[in-house]
Amino acid sequence: MNLTDLTEVLRERADLDDTAHDARMAGIRGRIVATRRRLALAGVVCVVLAVVSAVFLTVPREVEPAKPPRSLPGFGDGARLVAQAWADLPTNSVTIEYTPKSDEFVLFDRCAVQGLVMVIAINERPVQAGGCHSGSLRIGDLAKFGAEVGKPLVITMVVGVGSAAGEFPEKAEDVRPPDEEATGEFALGVGEEMPVGEYPFPPRPETLEDVDHLGLSDGTPGDVNLRADRDDPDARQTTTMVWPGSISLRAALNTPGRLEVFIDDQAVYEVDSWNYEGVTGFATLGEEDGLLFAPGQSVTVTVIAERTTGDWIVQLSEYE
Q1: What is the 8-class DSSP label of residue 214?
Q2: Is 223 found in the same domain as 180?
Q3: What is the pTM of this model?
């Protein structure tokens, strides 16, 4: 039924004259038209809002970048960073509570404020003192700090002004707080040693240090030298020598890696490198090290290299 049919039915059933009927129908038509206009207007508004939202989401907005947290490097000196503490001057100390998992761990420090001094202590016993600098320190003898594996210890770093002008401090009490106007930051970290095979070495540079320029002596005709195979630096090197009674051992390598020296299968020395800056080592070996060979006895010297990728040398000389 359409609008015309509806009009006829209403006309037949209602006792209305044409004028009244027409007025009522006009009102009905008006309401229908108004409803349609409202619906159309609502649709247009929704479309406009959708377009505005899309534009808002796609137009680039300036976002203030988040300030990265302060942190020491995650790896260093053969260790993985496991704890750290930071402070800003004029605060003059930081503390870390740490439970050692082995006899050896590494301390990292960062302090680049000129004119200040610092002291690092384990269980209040000084382990390092001097000018404000950045570096690392291996800890191996826990007993001298009243500590042992598996028991918590307290590591403290104190930064400030030396109590005696021109002299480095020896203990924390020798460091006075800095001026209230002092600015700068400092940090203390603890690292746990990693196996050489798992440590992430830094990227290799284009050129390497010359091992022959790393402080080794020119040697004498009686010296015994073992050197890396250029094609296979990790290849084991072995030779024999006549035992002179005691020896001076020098070692150098120009890439990360480890060298272990054995005499008649007895481990006598090792040297580690964790970067490409070139590392040297020195030791004097004799009876006090358990090398009870008779002078003139022939012994076998073996060098085992691990993860080396460049040049290395081990030099043995008679100790005089």
Answers
A1: S
A2: no
A3: 0.72
β-pair partners for 305: 259
Reference 122, options 24, 190, 63; nearest CA is 190
CA–CA gap between residue 127 and residue 112 (Å, rounded): 19
Q: Is 205 a domain residue? A: no
Q: What is the 3-state secondary structure (H, E, C) of 80-97?
A: EEEEEEEEECCCCEEEEE
Residue span of the structural domain in which 36 resides: 3-58
Let me know if residue 201 belongs to a domain. no
Query: Measuring CA to CA, which residue among 148, 156, 29 is closest to residue 94?
Result: 156
Q: Are residues 222 and 112 in the same domain?
A: no
Cα of first residue to Cα of last residue in the chain, in angstroms, is 125
Domain end point (choices 141, 162, 193): 193
Structural domains in the chain (count): 3
Tens of pLDDT, residues 19-44: 554 555 555 555 555 555 565 545 54
Please tell me the distance from the alpha carbon of residue 320 to that of residue 244, in angstroms, as a whole number: 10
**Is position 98 within any domain?**
yes
